[in-house]
Amino acid sequence: MERRVFNFNPGPATLPLPVLEQAQAELLNYQNTGMSVMEMSHRSKDFEEIVFTTEALFKEISGVGDDYRVLFLQGGASQQFALIPLNFLSADKTAAYAITGNFAKKAYEEATKLGKIHVAVNTADNKYKEIPRQEDLDIPADAAYLHITTNNTVYGTQWHYIPETNGVPLVADMSSDILSRPWDYQKFDLAYAGAQKNLGPSGVVVVLISKKMLEKVPETLPAIFNYYNLAKKNSLYNTPPTFGIYMLQLVLKWIKAQGGLEAMAKHNEEKAALVYEVIDRYDFYQGYAHKASRSFMNITFRLPTEELEQKFIQEAAAVGLVGLKGYRTVGGIRASVYNAMSRQGCEKLASFMEDFVKKHG
Ligand SMILES: *Cc1c(COP(=O)(O)O)cnc(C)c1O
Hints:
Elements: E1 6-7, H1 17-25, H2 45-62, E2 68-73, H3 76-88, E3 94-99, H4 102-112, E4 116-122, E5 146-149, E6 151-152, E7 157-158, E8 170-173, E9 190-194, E10 205-210, H5 211-214, H6 227-232, H7 242-258, H8 260-281, E11 286-287, E12 298-302, H9 306-318, E13 321-322, E14 333-336, H10 343-360
Parallel strand pairs: 1-13, 3-4, 3-5, 5-8, 8-9
Antiparallel strand pairs: 2-10, 6-7, 9-10, 11-12, 12-14
Helix pairs in contact: 1-7, 2-7, 3-4, 7-8, 8-10
Bound molecules: pyridoxal-5'-phosphate (PLP).
């Protein structure tokens, strides 16, 4: 294939081209070490340097201070569903969960296997089409933490505010919108993300965690599940996903070079607006999420029939717009437009959508 397609896959997802090119250029001989990062000892000075600078860059870009650590772990976001209650839900406590979509529900279900859970809100009855308001949240004052999912990848909804918890630690799955906008990350006691949507390749999960939370981890927990231990060992307790961490560092450098999170937010809002504008202009397209809860990362919509949806996906692929099929429980179309999706990709999708209505509408 001579040219790259516009890849709207939900994850693993498209990566910035300059990042792939740099990885390619350094693949055989990383900075005169005579070897690939993949072949390097995780105990070497060169690799330690990669881990330390990646943590520092993440803190700088997200704007958190020295009372935070950034860990690079394995097991994906799904492993965090279990690690969080293992570390922070003691037998005498209850944890609160906001169930706002597919992954939020999975996080809740995993936690129920490990302790007492209180449902702070559940939007299943309205098919996860909107984000709850602050006044819809029921957070027990003595909860171990409140868990939210900041962007619901499957349904295409996104929290546009940070909930007030009145001192209850706030924990968030940010897998599909981490570092997509400036946010007060210091309001979160723990935020985690599988890298494969907005940060890099699959195989590495980022955990931003406050030192205050690290102090709460029970010593009895096995070392590999123990955030305190993993932080103390600087993510090098055992062999970490070395190449993934290196790729993540390249993506962070790219975000910084673009102008940081302010620039990312502007880029993402403008891109998403191009597609939502077409959805709103034609009755032919029905947006899935309620307008006020729309995601800038995953744009979900339906066409009049499933046949037309299939045709849409086929004709789009034929012009180099791929990965547009919606999740099986929602159906329809989902365009995932994370940080690395270019403006040209969204322009091309928007004009394809206009042409498609004219042809089939
Ligand atoms: C993709 C996704 C997950 C699952 O991530 P894995 O790394 O596959 O475990 C969890 N939460 C959200 C919000 C996601 O988008």
